[in-house]
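ugh ok fine here u go
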Amino acid sequence: MRFDGSEEADAAFMHAALALGERGQGTTWPNPAVGCVLVREGRVVGRGWTRPGGRPHAETIALECAGEAARGSTAYVTLEPCANWGRTPPCAGALIEAGVARVVIACFDPDPRVDGKGIAWLREAGLEVAVGTLADRAMAAHLGLYRRILEGRPMVTLKLAQSTDGRLAAAGGHSQWITGEPARREAHRLRATHDAIMVGSGTALIDDPSLTCRIAGLEHRSPVRVVLDRRLRLPHTGELARTARDVPVWVICDAAEESRADTLRAAGAEVLGLASPTPEEALSVLARRGITRLLVEGGSTLAAALLRADLIDRLHVATAPMLIGGDGLPSVAALGVTRVDRTARWRRVDMRRLGSDRLEVLERVREN
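structure:
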């Protein structure tokens, strides 16, 4: 595509930057997963995305890739370039120093250390700056950052694997496997795109899960494993505790139970005692520790608690073509809904087949 400053060209290059940024999701926390593309005379001369641990930033990598070709180029960045000094110099200054002529930014950075300062710095240096290209898609990609900075919690995805009649297990608790191999593989891919994965104590005790990413080549992308375990029942002999030195395990419990945490801590798990270990407080402590994207897997009670508190942003629902019946265990426990016209509304953003199963991805519709 010939670069001529058109909206069509800007959108195409921003699509590319967003695709690059997605590569870092789940690995960059507490920093956002940003993508950057440098274009000069219609040709991509540099590209980058935020590396694991949040450094280097996408712009730094793209500028290094471009070298002298960055001078006079247009930078497409999915999030406002930072303006604060941290472990590395600010990206806004790096773009100016490299001689970039124009910067197209998808959305603002809500971090108080940036929050328009990067854009102002670029404009004061004489660069042309355009803001808002593919803003909705960029806001969705950076929702974890927005939730953590503005609301003090991570973006939360709830994953459900259920029968056609909404059951996650038979009456006795047997559930392996409701969905098929393609759906289970997609669940592991989803784990790799989140900073942390949370289950309730019931799921941890009954299933003894590992909660790791078991896709060849992505094993290193396993998220922090979090158990909301008010009464601190997680055994030090279980799979999570046994592997806590390989992949982090955080156990959130009632502070009154923390005195019994020695064996779990000796196994390598972190035990976080809270005066009020509600789902809201659990999300708050995760945000303070830098978690921006949280996947909730397993536990109809935990799922219902988060839904009742309106803390779920996205649903990933894999539905298998089978019926279990009313005596099976529901995928979501009671929500206390008394009027269907007052229940939460969701927008379907994706639907596809995974083998014989159906995957639906929905986003919470919220009032502005």
